Amino acid sequence: MQDDRKIRSVAIVGGGTAGWMAASAMAKAFAAPGGSAGPTITVIESETIGTVGVGEATIPPIRQFNSMIGLDEADFMAATGATVKLGIAFHDWSAPGSRYFHGFGDFGPEVRGQAYRQHLFRLHAEGRIDSLEAWSLPSVMAAKGRFAPPSDDPRSVLSAYSYAYHFDAGLFARRLRALAEAAGTVRLEGRIVDVTVDADRVQAVVLEDGRRVESDLFIDCSGFRGLLIEGALKAGYEDWTRWLPCDRAVALPCPATRAPVPYTAATALSAGWRWRIPLQHRVGNGYVYSSAFIDDQAALDELLQGLEAAPVAEPNRLRFVTGRRRMAWKGNVVAVGLASGFLEPLESTSINLIQTGIGRLLELFPDRDFDPALLTEYNRRTAQEFERVRDFIIAHYHLAGRSEGELWRHCRDNAPPDTLAAKLELFRARGEVSLLEDESFREDSWAAVLTGLGVWPRRVSPLVQRLDLDQVQAQAGRLADLIGRAAASLPDHAAYLDARRRSA
Ligand code: FAD
């Protein structure tokens, strides 16, 4: 890169989770000791507009993000009221009373070059087991309410899982802001009322009080409105409502009535599903629903019926259109967070999509010539990642067997996207999952959800079938026993949180 063409300034429009994650990551990435000065970073946000005010559950890569920006775990957990998340318990998706768990870890070790799940699929086909969960350490830990960080020793059974957090995203943004400001990021408070554009590039944003902020690169973190990427540059939006009809949510926190469990609960309701997310200081609850199948008041009533205690805030009502921006990067604007698209939080993926978006931008960071090859690659990979998460979420609805509620019949009868149909066909044929680059969920995540919903492979690998069935069953029994004992040897989740609090 020619030094005289380098980006001198980055303006981040929006100070929600996306804006402050972008600011803290960029501040860290450009803080090269002894290197030349990085671009100036400015965050513009408006307290009167506020943030979306939800977003509490994450997936394991968030730990790499925190470590990359130098945020210590004990400090982070204390600042954000965080608890541990080992996965998601899905209730009532197949029928009332049904339950399955998607844990952050694989089902057992590889045996003779075959993923262990293949041996378990065979035991299922032979009628010897009815679920994979006893071979998922995080599922067993979650059921027992136990937690300790994974062992660093790859030979230990206690190395076979990962974890994420539940936390208050507003407090997370506040903590990130402190880090970013300490590293030199400038924050401007004010409402943007105008955006000046020249030849498909944003020149400046204009604040209500007349201040004008010019920049070489803009990161649009303005939330659903997509102030720059859509409002100014008209990047376009691909609407996925035909596959994912939920378009509203109502969120209602309540006080905790028991010690926090180390998992999210996602319970199917008449026209969508309800989340329960335990934090240290409260429980987050919300109902994601489709306005085509239930009205707002009935949705609120249904959510209230399931609450364990009286709510501590007024309902936060949200509207969204599931889909993605056709171009997440256009001209000199890169959209990150809700400005780049939205997928409902069934697998807690939005904050992760922010993280991967920022990572890609740093990898493909442009100079002021904005080489189109960088933009094309960024948009290709972003689109692909959004689509793969979309397919995973559609699978939950499409395969849900429940018969109560028109929404569920609609989702079952609705043909899935070709990409998902092909994935399901391969899984049904052989229990394999074809993954592309940048997929957030690996084979065993798919196996957990598909088998949890009652979809099992018709055949398993012939390499697995050669082994003696009784021996395979005996070995699987020993492994399940080992996993059960290992989980039981760990401390209570609540004890872990206490220890973390004391070390903050
Ligand atoms: P916002 O929070 O909306 O922030 C937008 C920012 O732009 C604000 O600072 C605002 O002031 C500023 N702004 C906008 N317009 C202007 C203007 N004109 N002038 C100046 N400033 C402006 N994600 C997860 O990972 N896990 C979850 O469990 C989860 N649950 C969710 C549940 C629901 C119902 C919804 C809707 C989302 C959920 N998310 C979840 C997503 C998560 O909340 C968002 O991805 C995340 O908070 C990022 O939001 P954001 O920063 O893009 O936008």
Automatic annotation (TrEMBL):
Q: Where are the transmembrane segments?
A: none
Q: Which domain of life is it from?
A: Bacteria
Show the coiled coil region(s): none
Q: Which InterPro entries match?
A: FAD/NAD-bd_sf, Flavin-dep_Halogenase_NPB, Flavin_halogenase, Trp_halogen
SUPFAM superfamilies recorded: FAD/NAD(P)-binding domain (SSF51905)
PANTHER family (alphabetical): FAD-BINDING PROTEIN, FLAVIN-DEPENDENT TRYPTOPHAN HALOGENASE
What's the protein here called?
A: Tryptophan 7-halogenase
Organism listed in the record: Brevundimonas vitisensis
